[in-house]
Amino acid sequence: MFASTNPKQPFYVANQVEVSATSQKVLTYLYQPLIGALGVGLYLTLVNEYDSVPFNSDYRTLYQLQEQTNSNLKNLFDSLHYLEATGLVKTFVGNNPALGDVIIFRLQPIPTAAEFFKTFLLSSLLLERVGEVAYERLVKEFTPRRFMGLKNAHEVTSAFFDVFRLNEQAAINPPEQVTQAVKKVEAGNKRVLKVGKTDIRIDWEYLRMQLEAYHVDGGEVVNKRRDISQIIQFYQLSEIEFAQLAVKTLSPGEDKLDIKAIQKLANSEYGTSRTRNSVRRQIKSQEEDYVLPTALNKTDKEILLEVENKATVAYLYDLKSRLGGMVTGDEKRVTFVLRDKYGFTDPLINLIVYACLSEYPTLSMKYAETTANDWLREKTLTPVKALARIRERQKGKQRRPYFYNKKKSTTSDGVDWDKKAQQQAQEKTQHTKMSHEEMDEIFNNFEKKE
Q1: Which of 276, 272, 284, 274 is CA-nearest to residue 381?
Q2: Is the CB of residue 59 less than 8 Å from the CB of residue 102?
């Protein structure tokens, strides 16, 4: 990937692209979740930067592009790489005798919604980014509407030969010029979107044999080669893995491939695994000896020992039992999702449960995911660091946690919360209480001003 650190480096746009209202809708609704708002802004800015005859004095610089998009060079090139990977921009570096290296952008027309959804790399990525509900809403948004009143209507349209006269021979056997024109026009209009580089080589004969073993028509591999290639490239699948996915979508006696069903299943099984593997790699990179530091107090040591030695659901039940609450099905589901979908270890899941229930009466997916994301961002992926993060957050909030004995005064980290609450109430009373003399003086002053 190319990136420049020189804000004075010149660039120019090599071609002109028309952006219609329909194209802009595709760019905003379908591409923006993939390339971001800055990516959309950068593309539209480059569209307006086209100059058919760029002279040396007319060259723009990256600094000007930064000002127009209100971004720094790093963010600018990150967005450019998104545009390149999704097939909207091609970037070249040329040499000019007067200016030296010049960046050249060749813009690609924004595809139609149908072309976008046929490109499974883009469509699958959109599904992964926005989720199934939003994805189906976008599909509905771009599905052509049909007027239902035509269902029972009788067509009275004139036929071609009712209006025009044509030589019988030409009508039966079109002239050579006509048949050649068809071939030329078709060749020019067959656009297949190219999205980034593809490095995986597919053994199509081997894949055909794998599918035929499950009674799938061998011609399906030929007819749907482009769609199959996109799914394999996007999810980094082998021929066997694709065949196993395809088999799961087949109904008894069916010998055709349902590409949409395969795409959804691939996103469910392999899209999720990408997130899980990423989390596990981050956790592994921070693994440490779980020797408890001497600086920890007795309570924290007991918590760490408990979260490391208890299964997630058992820990959840024990914790809710101490609070006097009950464990719901949704709460148990949160622990399963954290482990199976996101790849967190049992000690970290138990601490996420502990962190959430320290602030809220129930364990919800929303707060669990927020806590998990916070720990990933702050690189606190060991039990000791995670507990330290919980304590840091509790001190910052200065609030009484849900973990306390209502009958006895409870201290946490040296703070007596009951005593502190009484002191605050006294201070508030002292601050708001006013003597009769003070009130008389205020009213007397008010009368004087009147």
Answers
A1: 284
A2: yes
What is the three-class DSSP state of 101? Answer: strand
The reported pLDDT for the residue numbered 41 is: 93
C-alpha of 100 from chain center? 39
How is residue 193 written in tokens?
């979107």
C-beta separation of 149 from 63 below 8 A: no
Please state, in angstroms and as integers, the Cα–Cα distance from residue 34 to each residue in 1, 90, 130, following that order.
18, 17, 9
Two structure tokens written together for 82: 């998104």
DSSP-derived 3-state class of residue 174: coil
Residues 354 and 319: beta-carbon distance below 8 Å: yes
d(CA 382, CA 304): 10
Contact present, 327 and 320 (Cβ < 8 Å): yes
User: Strands 100-107, 89-96: parallel, antiparallel or unpaired by DSSP?
Assistant: antiparallel
User: In this structure, what token pair is assigned to residue 105?
Assistant: 């952008």
Query: In terms of DSSP H, where are the helices of 86-167?
Result: 113-118, 120-142, 160-163
Edge-to-edge strand ranges of the sheet holding 89-96: 60-61, 10-13, 100-107, 89-96
pLDDT digits (tens, 9 = 90+) for 115-172: 898 887 888 888 888 888 899 999 999 988 776 676 677 777 877 667 777 665 665 5
Query: What residue type is 337 in one-letter code?
Result: V
Q: At 22, which amino acid appears?
A: T
Helices (H) and strands (E) in the chain, counts: 23, 6
The number of angstroms, rounded, from the C-alpha of 230 to the middle of its chain's C-alpha atoms is: 19
Closest by Cα among 250, 200, 256, 209 to 230: 200
Task: State the alpha helices, DSSP H only, in 9-54.
Answer: 21-26, 32-48
State the Cα torsion 400-403-406-407 to the nearest 10°: -120
Q: Which two tokens stand for residue 118?
A: 């046929």
Q: Which of 395, 387, 333 is nearest to 365 (CA)?
A: 333
For residues 307 and 318, the answer to whether their CB atoms sit within 8 Å is: no
What spatial distance separates the first Cα and last Cα of the chain, rounded to whole Å?
A: 75
> What would the pLDDT profile of 8-17 be if each residue is shown by its tens digit?
888 888 888 9
96 membership: H or E segment, kind and range: strand 89-96
Cβ density class 15-48: b for 16+ within 10 Å, e for less: eebebeeebeebbebbbbbbbbebbbbbbbebbe
- For residue 183, give both structure tokens: 């071939």
CB atoms within 10 A of CB 73: 17
pLDDT in tens, 48-92: 887 655 555 567 889 888 999 899 999 999 999 999 989 999 999
